[in-house]
Design goal:
about 130 residues; alpha+beta; Alpha-D-Glucose-1,6-Bisphosphate, Chain A, domain 4; seven-stranded antiparallel sheet; 7 strands; about 40% strand
């Protein structure tokens, strides 16, 4: 893999309960509304352990393999455009994202932009309490 090793760890406060945050991270239909990446078609209703899917940012494809998908954590191994991993942890009023890998992409900038979009999305969202 070409590129440099990069690590970015960000934690932000959000005005949303843990259940709403989890829904926006674990359900592809919600994830696609704020994530600045195009997800591969045909994904199941909810991300689950063992699932592999592809996203793209322009001409760069990133393969995601879901290692952990629970009510407070999402961990994915990444390959192709980023060789590394992305972890999400959340609770009532906060989200934490940890991204590490080798890539030509500016990971810290991309992660900061994604979390900003996510925070803005959550601020305007009225997610139902039922999945």
């Amino acid at each position: 893999m070409l590129g440099t090793f990069q690590a970015s760890h960000l934690r932000i406060e959000v005005d949303a309960p843990a259940k709403s945050i989890g829904r926006c991270l674990l359900y592809p239909i919600e994830l696609q509304k704020w994530l600045p990446q195009q997800l591969s078609p045909g994904l199941p209703e909810k991300l689950s352990e063992g699932l592999t899917f592809t996203s793209s940012i322009g001409f760069v494809s990133i393969e995601h393999h879901v290692e952990v998908a629970s009510d407070r954590c999402l961990r994915m191994l990444l390959s192709q455009g980023i060789d590394g991993f992305h972890e999400w942890y959340w609770g009532d009023g906060w989200v934490q994202s940890r991204l590490e890998g080798v890539s030509l992409l500016p990971l810290n900038l991309g992660q900061t932009f994604s979390l900003w979009r996510f925070k803005e999305f959550l601020a305007t969202l009225h997610v139902s309490d039922t999945p």
